[in-house]
Amino acid sequence: MSTALVTGGGRGIGRAICLALAQAGHDVAINYAGNAAAAEETRALCEQAARQFAHTVNDDRGGGARFATFAADVSEAQGVESLFEQVEATLGSVGILVNNAGITRDALLLRMSEEDFDAVLDTNLKGAFLCCKRASRNMVKQRGGRIVNITSVVGIAGNPGQANYAASKAGLIGLTKTLARELGSRNITVNAVAPGFIATDMTDAMPEEARTAVQAGIALRRAGQPEDIAALVAFLAGDAASYITGQVICVDGGMTL
Ligand code: NDP
To answer: Which of 24, 77, 138, 233 has the most other CB atoms within 10 Å of its CB?
Structure first.
């Protein structure tokens, strides 16, 4: 079992990913930006999930997996460096990195400010770059590792009002494919998961009318749940996925057929 670092692990899809990795027996470092209470709740849920895992595999040590929360802004190089130093000191070096932290600042192009463009690119794309760069240092030494980047179907298809977000998510796909090629010889896999419309705080912020319209365009006619994304991430982080790299896998209920 490895130490997993999940950026933006306190809420939404990130929380579900932390729980799925805990259920798979990994130690989990839960990164968050400002919501310490949500991250702490995720940590407590991971403890429960680990106990269930221990019960399933008949492990009378109680699973032994460890969980801790770490505040850091992934868009800042210094923040990422100190995040990794703290995770290494507490849980050991990171063998599984999930770049999940993300924000939106929606507006049509003519109304989109440079500040909102930069903020979204800095968190969603530069944050992933900084974390991949720092994590790969130890992964290369250890000749193994797993990186999963959470992109979006919007990075593939585009979406009016989300030029910044779509550009950041398309950038993540380029980053994923390039790093898969660069790091493959060191037994490090790099994949991207592209969620469609998933019920979290991010999509709850949309007007009811807009949510209904989006759901009408999904083959399965409903929003996905964070667990739908987490199950694939846990699979990609596990032994059964050791020959999958450089892929972009949509989990969208048939939204982008
Ligand atoms: P939420 O808004 O529910 O949660 C976002 C998480 O990211 C929070 O934990 C937040 O921390 C963290 N975060 C934000 N900025 C930073 C930062 N600078 N540094 C560290 N952490 C940060 O989002 P979702 O769960 O909906 O989305 C998770 C990922 O999935 C994102 O990358 C998003 O783009 C992607 N996605 C989501 C879809 C959806 O339909 N929900 C669809 C497609 C992709 P804190 O809790 O401290 O605020």
So the answer is: 233
- Say yes or no: CB of residue 200 within 6 Å of ligand 1: yes
At 58, is the pLDDT very low, low, confident or very high (cuts 50, 70, 90)?
A: low
User: Which among 5, 7, 11 is the best mutation to test ligand 1's pocket, defined by most ligand atoms within 8 Å of the CB?
Assistant: 11
**What range defines the domain where residue 40 resides?**
3-251
> Is 10 domain-assigned?
yes
Q: Residue 207 sits in a domain of what CATH number?
A: 3.40.50.720
pLDDT in tens, 231-255: 999 999 999 999 999 999 999 999 9
Q: What SS3 state is found at 60?
A: coil
Note the pTM of the prediction, 2 decimals: 0.97
What are the DSSP calls for 117-163, one per residue? HHHHHIIIIIHHHHHHHHHHHHHHHHT-EEEEEE--THHHH--TTBH
* Residue 32 designated active-site: no
Total residue count of the chain as it appears in this document = 257
